[in-house]
Amino acid sequence: MERPILYIAITNHGFGHATRTASVAATIQKLYPEILLILATTAPRWLLECYIEGDFIHRPRAFDLGVVQADSLTMDKEATLEKLLDIKKHQNSLIASEVNFIRQNRVNLILADIPFLAPGFAHAANIPCWMMSNFGWDFIYRDWGGEFTAISDWISDWYSKCDRLFRLPFHEPMSAFKNITDVGLTGGSPYYSADDLRSVWGINAPIEKTILLTFGGLGLQQIPYDNLRRFPDWQFIVFDESAPDLPNLVKISNRKYRPVDFMPICGRVVSKPGYGTFSEATLLGVPIVTIPREDFAEAIFIIEGITNYNQHQIIKPSEFFQGTWDFLYELPQKPKQSQPIAKDGNEAIAQAVINYFRSN
């Protein structure tokens, strides 16, 4: 029998789509070692290797762009529109070159999170396209109105050609998709023991005074680090190499470590609204402190998700950027829902993929 080959296409936006998809890919590989994974993404290989322990083929390709951003909270709509119009103009050649690769490599199935051209690859190559996400880019752009309305219609049309959607929690309706399977939370699991982390990185503050500050792959230039001086007996963990040297700031410079590895030793995670961080924190039961994002339609659903299913603090941007961080002295609010959220997203998607290969 020929080796089963799965082609995974990942949205070219920050690191969140890459890490949540890589955690699903890792689960597929663990449960079905004979599979060959091809990951088509511009995310760096080192990031994917933090999640996927076995071999995979990395194909550095971008088929969409998400949103052009200066950092985690600042968007450039004009540049985004210009690039989307360019993708639309060249969609046929983008599809043709990828179909050529997919056929040459005898790919059996596409799993995408969530580049809208992926169903086009699948249809031209005569294989199924499955997708996974908690939102579609049509939803994000439609909220911006104007010229983005026509772009959203074009994207919705591509999404409607998808054979099956695994809809993640904290989702918008995703009404362009015709065949939807709801699954639980996805994400990575911590690799290191709490004692190892504490000794390697010199973390000795009690858990309730250990805070993870994480703003995704795009970072956040204007974190008011000066506030940390007001908490001398606390410790703050960041993945920002440009952060200042402060006695209570632990800068994680080694790329083999991920935010999820540190979550179990932290009393809280302070982050922008992003599915990956929120999902991993909720999987581990670590409270979230977050700032709403006015301009990103997905944020409403993500914040509603943690409000329902995790301990949380929703703070105003002014409290974070101009305030004195007194919110750290307050207790997080309890989740609104008494029933826990499903946490089996990685396994549910992986099992569906494996079942497909075994029955075809």
Properties at a glance:
360 residues; alpha/beta; 7-stranded parallel β-sheet; 6-stranded parallel β-sheet; globular
Q: What does this entry look like structurally?
A:
This protein has 360 residues and is of the alpha/beta class. It has 13 helices and 15 strands. The strands form three sheets. It has a seven-stranded parallel beta sheet with strand order 3-2-1-6-7-8-9. A six-stranded parallel beta sheet has the order 12-11-10-13-14-15, covered by helices on one side. The chain has a two-stranded antiparallel sheet with strand order 4-5. Strand 6, helix 5 and strand 7 form a beta-alpha-beta unit. 44% of the residues are buried.
Q: What strand order characterises the main sheet?
A: 3-2-1-6-7-8-9
Instruction: Give the H and E element order.
Output: EHEHEEEHHEHEHHEEHEEEHEHEHEHH
Uncertain segments of ≥5 residues (pLDDT<50)?
Answer: none
Largest sheet: 7 strands, parallel
Mean pLDDT: 95
Query: Structural class of the secondary elements?
Result: alpha/beta
Strand residue percentage? 15-25%
- Shape descriptor: globular
